[in-house]
Amino acid sequence: MITTVLDTNIILRYLLQDIQSQFEQAKEVIEEIEGGKRSGLLSILVMNELIWILEKYYELKRPIFIPKIEKILMIEQMKIIEVKKEVIMQVLQKMQKNRFDFTDMYLAANYSQAEIFSFDKDFGKIYKKN
């Protein structure tokens, strides 16, 4: 089985379907991962960049794009490189209910027993909501 590390632009083209030729190539690779011909690897950095681009550059709302990301992550052969996939799924679900950004939610989910030092005033609110 071929192991394929997916870059942010592959997931973007697949979700947005805005450049037809690239969408077709991205779709083919993701379908091969879904079908078991490949295993897919996503970095936490790709997840962070993907969410930032969808929100800030494309100005998409979370209820639009988070379910689509979750669907990709539900593919059995799709793995997150640095962390358990379940953690990312929990962070995405919490993001839908709150306005906190991915990085803040990720840090709070993974380091809840530690002090997180940040100038971001929202960090205190994250702990109240979790």
How confident overall, as mean pLDDT?
Answer: 87
Estimated radius of gyration: 15 Å
Largest sheet: 3 strands, parallel
In total, how many domains does the architecture comprise? 1
Instruction: From the 3D structure, determine the CATH topology.
Output: Rossmann fold
Neighbour order of strands in the largest sheet: 1-2-3
CATH class category name: Alpha Beta
User: What structural category arises from helix and sheet content?
Assistant: mainly alpha
Order of helices and strands: EHHEHHEHHH
Low-confidence stretches: none
Instruction: Give the terminus-to-terminus CA distance.
Output: 39 Å
Give the helix proportion (percent range). 55-70%
Count of β-strands? 3
Net shape: globular
* CATH 2nd-level architecture: 3-Layer(aba) Sandwich
Total helical segments: 7
Q: Which percent band covers the strand fraction?
A: 5-15%
Secondary structure topology:
Elements: E1 2-5, H1 8-16, H2 20-34, E2 38-42, H3 44-57, H4 62-73, E3 78-80, H5 85-97, H6 102-110, H7 123-129
Parallel strand pairs: 1-2, 2-3
